[in-house]
Amino acid sequence: MAITASRITVSLGGKPILHDVDAQIRPGEVLGLIGPNGAGKTTLLRVLAALLTPDCGGVDYDGASARALGRAALARRIAFLAQGGEAQGALSVEALVGLGRLPHRRPFAEAGEVDRQAVTRALALCDVTGFAARAVGTLSGGERRRVLLARALAVEASYLLADEPLAGLDPQHQLDTLQLLRRISREGTGVVVVLHDLTLAGRFCDRLLLLDHGRRVADGAPADVLDDDRLAQVFGIHALRSSQAGESFLLPWRTLNNENAP
Questions:
Q1: Helix, strand, or coil here: 197?
Q2: Distance (Å, rounded) from C-alpha 245 to C-alpha 247?
Q3: Distance of CA 80 to CAs 29, 54, 243, 254, 256, Å?
Q4: pLDDT tens digits, residue range 69-78?
Q5: Residue range 159-217, pLDDT digits in tens
Q6: Whole-angstrom Cα distance, residue 75 to residue 226?
Q7: ABC transporter domain: which residues (predicted)?
Q8: Phi/psi zone of residue 202: left (φ > 0), alpha (ψ -120 to 50 degrees), beta?
Q9: Which CATH superfamily is domain 1-62+158-235 in?
Q10: Which of 29, 69, 21 is nearest to 45 (CA)?
């Protein structure tokens, strides 16, 4: 089973954004969407989440279309963390995370014990249990980001699509977040994450999908996608490569237009 996108083409405001892009999200895997600014990463993520209808192409969700599944079933199957997602300042953190359970409840129904347990788990996973009673408006940007991730996790969906979940996070919480995404993927969730940090993308993603100018350039294991030629052609950089504790990594080092940099 998987989410499968085929030949996705999108134009927004008359501007071409994506051109014949294929993508697949598999359960138990972290897929990193990478590419330069304006490559089409967020647009593709929104198409995968059925929030944007492509001009051409389509998406199947475990073999069914979004229309066949219906909006309610799709909301239970896919959790979406938007880039710079909104959070109502007057709500408590616990109440905001509880909104993630709405797809599982009848309209106007009260939260049940299963919902409360899911919220408790999500708060703990994102290390925001201590904020539960605080108003969202009193949190820092990074704290709000973790709370919004907790709301997405509270859905307990089969697939999690996260657009730049590391934005505004300090280094510890960046690592914690990626370790968490890897953990839930190992428990069976299909995870797609938009990342700009190539070092972290190479370390924590099982597979990378590289976009450039709205086209799919490469899709495969991080070591294969992030080779020297693609780093030069797509990102215009050289990288240093090394390993630590048996784990290989790369570090963007200098731009091609700055060859004399140390």
A1: coil
A2: 6
A3: 16, 18, 33, 34, 36
A4: 999 999 999 9
A5: 999 999 998 899 999 999 999 999 999 999 999 999 999 999 999 999 999 999 999 99
A6: 33
A7: 3-238
A8: alpha
A9: P-loop containing nucleotide triphosphate hydrolases (3.40.50.300)
A10: 21
